[in-house]
Amino acid sequence: MKREPKAGVLALAMNLFLDLRNYQYSLSVVEGLRIHMEMGHSYIEIPKNSFNEMQKVVNASNEHVISIGARFSSEADSHLVCFQNEEGNYQTQANSKPGKTRTVTGASFVVFNGALKASSGFIAKSSIVEDGLMVQIPPETMESLRTALRDQTDFQIPCGRNDGGEVREIVTVRWVDLSSPVNTGITSGVDGRPLDGVRSVRVQQDTEFESDGRTISCTEVFYQLKAPDSNFSSVLSSCSVFQKEMALAACSALTPHLAVLASSGINSLTLRISTQADMVEYQAGCGGRLLPQRYMNELDSALIPVIHGGSASVPQTAMDMEFIFYITHTI
Questions:
Q1: Distance CA 67, CA 25 (A)
Q2: Which helix (H) or strand (E) covers residue 250, if one does?
Q3: Among 107, 220, 287, 298, which residue carries the largest CB count within 10 Å?
Q4: Please, what is the end-to-end C-alpha distance for the chain in angstroms?
Q5: Among 76, 9, 10, which Cα is nearest to 43's?
Q6: What residues does the Smad anchor for receptor activation-like C-terminal domain cover (predicted)?
Q7: Cα separation of 93 and 78, whole Å?
Q8: Between 1.25.40.10, 1.10.260.40, 3.30.500.40, 1.20.120.1730, what CATH number should domain 199-329 receive?
């Protein structure tokens, strides 16, 4: 993807997320966390049962930045969306539910940047960056925020100038009781099977697969565990290399066919890999229907070598892994 470099808050956001030494992009997602923005007030709501996940994010963050991915909030009547126009510029807009007045807007992530200097003239600043929220705070406020997150206590950040004037906005981090199921309304692209309550992880692919002006990438993997005593975190840890190799192999197999797939109306597809002791099966589909056999033949050639000779052993846990792939145009 070739375009001129962009300046401003977009560049600032990317600098916060990018690890230029290791060429990685990362944004940890805390299950159930949601961001609600209202007039004069923004709320970062963290489920109490996601305390351990939140601690991992805090402990893995660097001294000045804590960045957290959020889930889509069905309670918000609009949601921030970032898109790239034909000129290559990024734009942000709020998409509203039909017939709804926009009062609560959801966001996809929040970044706490603890490098705000006293000379800036602000006690804290909040702003929209792409489809997320950035909160700039002084170092001492960042330390207080870390303590609140570790102690599972609520925390308020008044935003405005430090001249004693009126507070323009308050950002509140609060712990809430949430019992709503994850991934509500999601169905499998293979056969339409409901995935309500099935936990998933977002994927940032570090290898680009491009052909005929289109790219394919794996963006999310659903884990449907079949044994009641299976631990989700342990499964993720043991499957990370296998997950990566299977996703890359599938992308490699389908890359030569991106133009044909897109012209057939297939812009997203699902690969389901079912595992248990001494058995691996897989299917691929789109919109609840299996892919034509010619694409399955291509997947056979790419996936079977990984299953039998990859650097990671096949998981022995009884589960279905559903890989979500998107085909997009390059600009």
A1: 12
A2: helix 232-254
A3: 107
A4: 6
A5: 76
A6: 14-307
A7: 10
A8: 3.30.500.40
Residue 251 CA to residue 305 CA, distance in Å, equals 14
How is residue 12 written in tokens? 């600032």
Q: How far apart are the C-alpha atoms of 4 and 89, rounded to whole Å?
A: 9
The answer to whether the beta carbons of residues 330 and 215 sit under 8 Å apart is yes
What type of residue sits at position 118?
A
Q: What is the DSSP letter of 161?
A: E
Break the chain into its structural domains and give their ranges.
Answer: 9-176, 199-329
Spell out the residues 6+ positions from residue 295 whose beta carbon is closer than 8 angstroms to its own.
254, 257, 261, 284
CB 294 within 8 A of CB 266: no
pLDDT digits (tens, 9 = 90+) for 150-178: 999 999 999 998 887 777 899 999 999 87
Q: For residues 308 and 260, is the Cβ–Cβ distance under 8 A?
A: no
Share of residues in the chain with pLDDT > 90 (%): 53
Taking residue 199's Cβ as centre, other Cβ atoms within 10 Å add up to: 17
CA distances from 98 to 93, 102, 277 (A): 15, 10, 48
